[in-house]
Amino acid sequence: MLIKSALIIIFLLSAILTAVAGDNDYCFKCHNWQTLGLIDSSYNRIKSYYVNKSQFENSNHKRLQCVNCHDGCFNTWPHNSTKHVSVSCNSCHRKQSVFKLYGTVVDFDSKNLVFEDFENEFFKSVHKLKFGTEFTCFTCHNPHSFDRSNLNKKEKIEHDNSICTNCHGNRNKEGKFRYVNEINLDETHNWLPNFQVHNRSVRCIDCHSSKNDGIRSHVILPKQQAVKNCEGCHSKNSLLLSKLYTHEHKSYRRELGFINGVLLNDAYVIGSTRNELLDNLSIIFSCIVLIAVLGHGILRIIIKLKSNVNK
Amino acid sequence: MKKIKLPKSLSSLFNTRKGRIYISLLSLSLLLVIFSGYIYNKIFEAYTGVTNSVLSYENSIELSELEFEELVEELTREQKLQKAGKVIDADDNFTNNVRTNILMRTRSFNRISEYKHIEYFRKAGIRKYDGPSTCLQCHTTMKVIRPDGKIDVVNTLDDVLNTVHFQFQTSSSGFTTYGYDGRKVNEGWHKIPVGKIDRACGIPGSFSWTGWASLIKTYPEYHGTDSHKTLVMRSEGCGQCHIGGNYHPATEYMMPIGDIPWQAKEGVDCLICHSQSYDMNQKFVIKDDGGTRWNQDRSLRAALTVGKPRNENCLNCHQHNMGGDLYEHNISAKNLGYKNQRILHEGAKRGNPFSIHNDVHYKAGLICTDCHIPQGHKIPRGTKGTDLVGNDLPDVEVACENCHTDAPHTKDKKFRVILNGHVNRIACETCHITNLEDRNVVLRDWVHPTYNSEEGIWSPTDIYRSGNPGKGFTYLWFNGNGTFLANALGSNPNGSKSYNPLMNQLVKIYDPEIINSVRKGAEDLKKIYPDIDVNKYVNRITNTLSGLSSELLNKRRKMIEENIRPLMNQGKSKIYPFKLFNAQMYEDMTNQGPYGAMILPFDYAVYYQTGNTTESVKKAIANPIVKRMYEMPFKYYMMDEFMYYFGVDGWQTVYPLKDGKLYNVEPQWMRQFGTLMVNHGITGKAHKCEDCHSPNGIMDFKMLGYDSIRVNDLQYPEELKNFQIQ
Questions:
Q1: Is the dihedral of CA B76, B77, B78, B84 positive or negative?
Q2: Opening angle at CA A230, ends A224 and A233, nearest 5
Q3: Would you call B351 helix, strand, or coil by DSSP?
Q4: I need a labelling partner for B327 at 20 to 30 A (CA). Which of A38, B190, B210, B631 fits?
Q5: Which residues pair with B632 in a beta bridge?
């Protein structure tokens, strides 16, 4: 066991809260109402205070109390807004942070739950540079329903893509950043053959994020810098190895074993996942079969003719 | 056979027997095709007993040039005075008047007019309004803007004739109604014409055919002396709210083929919707050689002020079913006719008034078509409804959320968010319609009319009227659909099985105040009709299922669980307010089922004049169309399907009149209360929290399917205490 130099135990409970709040059901009594919200000052959007209870209870944060993150005075209604302090991801998800939860100790570093790198990358991304403080972690990620680790690969792709299309692809939705909704994704991607198939098989950020900085894809680049050459992914040293498939190989190897991990995984990218040896072998075998069939046929004809002649 | 000299080719045709038969058959069929319209109409008239002839209107007068200019002067005087007032402002009053006078005679000033058609009519030389043909001179076609922005060009007359406003029915799908057999009306291949035209309902007491345009002879007490009262003719009938002026409703459209005759098309009243000076005193029944029909205002005065419909136009007809005839701001009820005055109906159908005094949207200056956005002449009524009313545009939403979004509350900082949370379960109307008019009719007895000496007519007795929540109207779960007899369908989102309005709140009255009123009403009636058994009378109303045999009762329970329960659980349900209604009518018991029997109509003239209800029914069912209803062709064409929706296994063609006596006909209350949506008369001052969230609130949570723990929670919510603290 490594001994950390400083264990920071984070408790975000105030005494009042423990007395009043009790457990999540108390909050959900009102916050599970779908239409709990208020029209926001832009008059175009509804600021929703709704948290989907069943989604929360399946999310990565399901063991948390509401009050762990939402500090404030909740024994009067409506909750006085100046007292509500919601934390940001980094309040917990940072180095050397250990969360003590009902006797269990969750060490963030070893569980790969430190998000500081993400934040650093995010500061370089086009969203942060363009929108500044308006754009936060929560603009894309909903902490109440975040359950990405439970998803399979296809679901992960869908989940990640929906974060982007929430603003960028959906003309009918009133997004916070409304003007970006004017984009028609099919039109802007019409240079890409089979865009819909790409949409289902890879994530937006696999092409639209930096190829060089780290492996965590939070540096989202302006559209001019997106990947536009096909060979970038459709080749042996596919870019995807450092993006979508970064963790795949490790997890396949872990689950299926070393060799099976290679043979039985479902990673398939045209031009990238080809195995030269198998390709050549299959060609050779096909030729052999063809020769064998033709040869057999010819031999039968010759013998038949010969027997005819004999007669 | 006489041979005619002809070239060889034709010879075989004309000179042989076969050829001549062939030729005659061909020419006969050619004649049939050419005159098919005429022949079909004659057959139709014979079959249904309707008449058609040329419609003429006394007030359609041709004006001379001078009269025309005088009329224009009168119509525009108000506007011009206003305009003049803006530019003339000397200190001296006398000077102002002189200057105003000069301006009123100035040419260019006279051309300023809000009524554009004055100039059009003047230039086109139109000095007489002849009905639709006058309008169609220029407006043969019209542009219709669809919601997706596309522009269609349609034939105006066809566009008008193919609306529910004209036809009073539709054979297409798009109803929000389900039959008791679980099928949606007109969703299958066998579509039947349904709508006001053939809806038997206890509110009007008649079908459109039997009660179209009647002249009633009345002897009111204020006319003449006690010994010799003078006759006052009154008008009554469904045709008063029809945009056509024919002797009968558009029955032709009920048939699979056929069109209405050209005479009927000339009867379309463009002006009642489009004129800004339509005189409702011209709406009375007239009798001529063709029969009785409704008069219209076809004066040039009405025609000159046409424009897009405003609230007054719609309310000319629609205030009757909203605020009611006796609603103090009902304008058309104050203009009953220059002669043969229309009869006023004292009880209100919905009792939710629409006027500047009672509705916030009216007050804000909105007009009907701001929410009911038309496409051409087709007007949507929204995707939710309990009654069997046709909808021109069944896919178009008319809903509060369209403008107010799902977070409509903004004013009260303390409550607004939590009120927005309620939107998920509670419809806007539930809180924002706090009361209906007092004259909202809940119980109407047509079988025991009371003599109204002031008007000199026998009128149906309204046993109970109330506009109070929990009494005149109630709260039910609603997912947008209703049953064939206007019962709201919906379910408690908690999935409660105990919510069963068709066996609970719509068939029993528990409220002691209402029961007392009913008892008193029955006792009053007993003074006129000594045969009434008061206890039985009260029981039939407060326990409507007592009208069913035990066999039918069991069938009803079974049908509800099998057919209706899945429909109740469909979609998303919210709590809506519903006006309740039940009526006692005569029913044809040969055609009865677990939800009621076929309701028979009354003839208005006989009913109002004599109060003899059985004679009135006999006269009404003697109408040829009703007779046709009881014959085989109609049975297969329509009535069987109608009965399946009613929960009955088909239509029995046993005509309920034998030897001059009614056969197997009984007076019956409906076996469940009808529920009608109320959506207008929206108040800014809505219900308070305590109105529902208290032990004796207006909403019966137990009846709405909540278990006792939840009922307690809802009646004594902790949050309410805390809201008071801050």
A1: positive
A2: 100
A3: coil
A4: B210
A5: none
Contact flag A33-B424 (C-beta cutoff 8 Å): yes
A33: closest chain B residue by CA: B421
Query: What chain A residue is nearest to B723 in terms of C-alpha separation?
Result: A77
pLDDT of residue A12 exceeding 70, the answer is no
With a cut of 90, say whether residue A132 has pLDDT above it.
no
Output the six-digit token pair for A261: 């991990």
Q: Which two tokens stand for residue B107?
A: 């040419």
For chain B, what is the radius of gyration of the CA atoms?
Answer: 29
SS3 A172: coil
Min Cα distance A138 → chain B (Å) is 21
Token pair listed for B633: 């062709």
Contact assessment for residue B220 and residue B453, using Cβ atoms and an 8 Å cutoff: yes
Which pLDDT score, from 0 to 100, does residue B601 have?
94
Cβ of A34 within 8 Å of Cβ of B722? The answer is no
How many other C-beta atoms lie within 10 A of the C-beta of residue B296? 27
Rounded to 5 degrees, what are φ and ψ at B447?
-75, -25
| DSSP category for residue A178 | G
Are the beta carbons of A36 and B406 separated by less than 8 Å?
no
For A268, other C-beta atoms within 10 Å of its C-beta total 9
Based on C-alpha coordinates, what's the Rg of chain A?
28
Cα separation, B697 vs B692, whole angstroms: 4
**What distance in Å separates the CA atoms of residue B44 and residue B88, rounded to the nearest whole number?**
65
Q: Could you please report the per-residue DSSP string of B85-107?
A: HHH---S-HHHHHHHHHHHHT-H
Contacts of B420 in chain A (CB under 8 A): 35-38
Nearest-Cα distance to chain A for B434, in Å, is 23
Q: What percent of chain B has pLDDT over 70?
A: 97
Overall average pLDDT of the B636-647 stretch: 93
Query: Confidence band (pLDDT; 50, 70, 90) for A175?
Result: very low
Interface ipTM above 0.95: no
User: Which residue(s) pair with A85 in the sheet?
Assistant: A71
* Pairing assessment for the beta strands A46-48 and B596-599 based on DSSP bridges: unpaired
pLDDT at B440: 95
**Smallest Cα distance from B358 to chain A, Å:** 27
**In this complex, is the C-beta atom of B722 within 8 Å of any C-beta atom belonging to chain A?**
yes
According to DSSP, residue B601 is labeled: P
Which one is predicted more confidently, B48 or B78? B48
Interface contact A78-B417, CB threshold 8 A:
yes
pLDDT at B41: 81
Which residues does B721 contact at the CB level (< 8 Å), separation at least 6?
A: none
User: CB B323: neighbour CB atoms within 10 A?
Assistant: 31
Smallest Cβ–Cβ distance between A38 and the set B414, B417, B719 belongs to B417
Contact indicator for B207, B443 with CB cutoff of 8 Å: no
Interface contact flag, B424 A77, Cβ < 8 Å: no
Q: What residues are paired with B217 via a beta bridge?
A: B233
Chain A within 8 Å of B708 (Cβ-Cβ)? no
CB contact at 8 A, A167 and A140: no
pLDDT at site B288: 92
DSSP state of B154: E
Q: How many CB atoms lie within 10 A of CB A134?
A: 11
Q: Is the pLDDT of residue B720 over 90?
A: no
Q: Give me the pLDDT at residue B2, please.
A: 65
First to last CA, chain B: 112
What distance in Å separates the CA atoms of residue B485 and residue B498, rounded to the nearest whole number? 22
Q: Do A35 and B420 touch (CB under 8 A)?
A: yes
DSSP, residue by residue, A92-148? TSSTTEEEEETTEEEETTTTT---HHHHHHHHHSHHHHHHGGG--HHHH--TTT--G
Residue B723 and residue A77: Cβ atoms within 8 Å?
A: yes
Closest Cβ opposite residue B414 in set A34, A75, A78: A78
Expressed in percent and rounded to 5, the helix, strand and coil fractions of chain A are: 50, 5, 45
